[in-house]
Amino acid sequence: MLGAGLIKIRGDRCWRDLTCMDFHYEVVLIVSGNLSFLNWLTIVPSIACFDDATLGFLFPSGPGSLKDRVLKMQKEEAREAGPTPTYGCMVRQAANLALGVLVAWLSIPVVLNLLSPKQVMNSSFNPLRIVNTYGAFGSITRERTEVILQGTASPNASAPDAVWEDYEFKCKPGDLRRRPCLISPYHHRLDWLMWFAAFQTYEQHEWVIHLAGRLLANDAEVLSLLAFNPFADKAPPRWVRGEHYRYKFSRPGGLHAADGKWWIRKRIGPYFPPLSLRNLKGYFRSREWPYPAPD
């Protein structure tokens, strides 16, 4: 947690001038389900750090209650003499001590990285991967970009009369009239990965092209991860492309909101060009991916 805090302070000025929360609110992140599993993974285990007396008010304290039985057990254990150490107990203590020394020794480069002004995020410093560095979101994005996947049945993807239809994901922004979803604590992993893909290019996220190939085949397994398939009960699309958009919320009381739109979007440009299954045959073969067969 200390490392995650340091990478934020070093990585983006908004953490230093306390303006990052102008763009993101932690409670909203949990309620909306956006990366909420990280929040819950921190909150739930932390309950064990509280003293019993602190959480005692959560349990009834009358005679025969759970709290009363636990207190009696603790008093009985306190009266009993400590057990004589056995051979197995001493072996376990020696193993614990050896493991502690090993972890401390392997942690030296991790601590040096923590103190370095060129701190590295999400890395391992030994082949055993027992100790690692972690730091989420060293910088904060001020705008939301999205990759919108589209398909067309037109034989010519460049034809001006080609009709491109949008695929809709279960939660990520797409349809301008669909309100933001609340999914906490569930996590739509594909939607999440598409959000990261929009930060970079498809060359850095080759799995997006794999996804496009599966859509070109109307693959049932992949389509089950989506909310809407414009080619359901129809022949698969002949072409699939990715379009890059910049999204922002419509203003309450504004023209877009009055028209029922939650979002406003502006096209940035193409994310990847129109692709057909024939185009992708060599691409799939070079990466040893199974070539999708149209349904």
Short description:
With 295 residues, the protein is of the alpha+beta class. Helices cover 39% and strands 14% of the residues. The strands form two sheets. A four-stranded antiparallel beta sheet has the order 2-1-5-6. The chain has a two-stranded antiparallel sheet with strand order 3-4.
Tell me what the structure shows.
Among the domains are: 86-140, no CATH class; 144-287, no CATH class. It is 39% helix and 14% strand. It has helices spanning 2-11, 13-16, 26-32, 36-46, 52-55, 66-79, 87-106, 108-115, 189-197, 207-216, 220-223, 255-258, 277-286, and strands at 144-152, 165-166, 168-169, 226-228, 239-249, 263-275. The strands form two sheets. It has a four-stranded antiparallel beta sheet. It has a two-stranded antiparallel ribbon with strand order 3-4. The model has no long low-confidence stretch (mean pLDDT 86).
Low-confidence stretches: none
What is the radius of gyration?
A: 27 Å
The strand count comes to 6
Please report the distance between the alpha carbons of the first and last residues: 48 Å
Q: State the shape.
A: elongated
Strand content: 5-15%
Mean of residue pLDDT?
Answer: 86
Strand order of the largest sheet: 2-1-5-6
H and E string: HHHHHHHHEEEHHHEEHEH
Structural class: alpha+beta
Main β-sheet: number of strands, strand sense, barrel status?
Answer: 4 strands, antiparallel
Helix count, DSSP H or I runs of 4 or more residues: 13
**Helical content band:** 25-40%
Main location: endoplasmic reticulum
Function: Involved in the maturation of specific proteins in the endoplasmic reticulum.
Membrane topology: Multi-pass membrane protein
Protein name: Lipase maturation factor
